[in-house]
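Lab notebook: predicted structure, single chain.

Context: the supervisor wants predicted structures on file for every construct in the current expression panel, including those that have not yet been purified. This is the next one on the list. No modifications to the sequence; it matches the entry in the shared construct table.
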Amino acid sequence: MIYGKNEHLPLFVHYKIGFLYEVCLRMLFTIITPCYNSASFLKETMLSVLTQAGDFSIQYLLTDGGSTDESVAIATRLKEQLQAGKLWCHCTHITIDIISEPDKGMYDAVAKGFERANGEVVAYLNADDIYLPGALQHVKTIFDLNNHIHWLCGRHLKIDENGKPIKSFLPFNYRPDMLRAGLHGTDLPYVQQENVFWRKALLNEIDLAVFRSYRLAGDFYLWYCFALHHRLHITNRHLAAFRTHGQQLSQVQRERYEQEFNLIRTHTRFSRLQVLAEQVKNYKFPDFIKVLLSPSIISNP
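Prediction complete. Output recorded below exactly as produced.
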């Protein structure tokens, strides 16, 4: 071991110090799962995190809004099983914290996790979605080898209530200006939140009070803030799966979601049409068409 050995300490203390030293050298992920009456899928979601295998540690935060179903009991049983060694840890180390108290909505719950995050890499996984085997190790490898990458996502994968794959595809190139203008979510596919991981430093770019104020489109607020500073990179691999069912807030209250989405994207300098026009200008069209497509003469939609 690198540290100096004190001959007066018992042997088991030396082993404990060595273990803690090794843990400190590993990448730490902070994974947050916001939860409210999510007993139907919560166990599967949590196990998809707790069974991740690789050379890293996990800080797992379950932020519950005061559920009245079995959600907290399910989370507590899994925590106890992990601590008792009945649930095998396949990575270096895992801690689970369960915060159960009334909140002001999902993004308030996620923000509580952000405030407690100690990991180098942060993500949040809704209580009905899942990570796929090997996801965190793959993310760790990318971040370790690419210091210029600050956030990334993988291939989109949608599953049904029973976990059966419905759709999979590789996302479009995420240009920061197109993200901020809201093209991904209107003209182009959404950024799938369960699929996104970022370095903790990016949390400094968001206003938690503003983030908490959103009811449905807080994920787009995150992407908007992140895209002000860094490009979203894509890895051609499935990292997570989005479960489709009739209870998602963004489907039940679609109109309100779109109102929040449009409110966030009004802060961008160009409209959606202006950004698209700027992209078209890069192609070899005749000059008179390029003039017609100039962003300076296209009004906001």
